[in-house]
Amino acid sequence: MTRQDLDRLLRHLVTLGALAVLLIPAARGSSTLLGWLPLWLLGMPLAAWWSLRRFPLPAVALRLPRRRRAQARRVARRA
Questions:
Q1: In the predicted model, is pLDDT for residue 65 greater than 70?
Q2: What is the pTM of this model?
Q3: What is the 3-class SS of 8-66, one letter each residue?
Q4: Which of 1, 45, 59, 60 is most buried when burial is the number of CB atoms within 10 A of its CB?
């Protein structure tokens, strides 16, 4: 299986999982065997797809300003 085939498969799994969570109320719940179903239907395929893409940062995160704060200094103790 090539990388493009895996990318296409994961894209379809994310789409189907999102549709299942949105349209089927039981898919929003939890199972005793699997746990929280939206994690397995949507979260895990999204994480796999993101890792296949080598973890790119979203464009919003690249535009956020970095906080510039002074580093904390130690208080000198009197002996």
A1: no
A2: 0.64
A3: HHHHHHHHHHHHHHHHCHHHHCEECCCEEHHHHHHHHHHHHHHHHCCCCCCHHHHHCCC
A4: 45
Closest among 57, 25, 55, 58 to 41, alpha carbons compared: 25
Q: How far is CA 24 from CA 31, 37, 58, 68, in A?
A: 14, 11, 29, 46
pLDDT in tens, 24-53: 999 999 989 889 999 999 999 999 988 888
Rounded CA gap, 71 and 37, in Å? 43
- By CB neighbour count within 10 A (0-12 exposed, 13-18 middle, 19+ buried), where does 77 fall? exposed
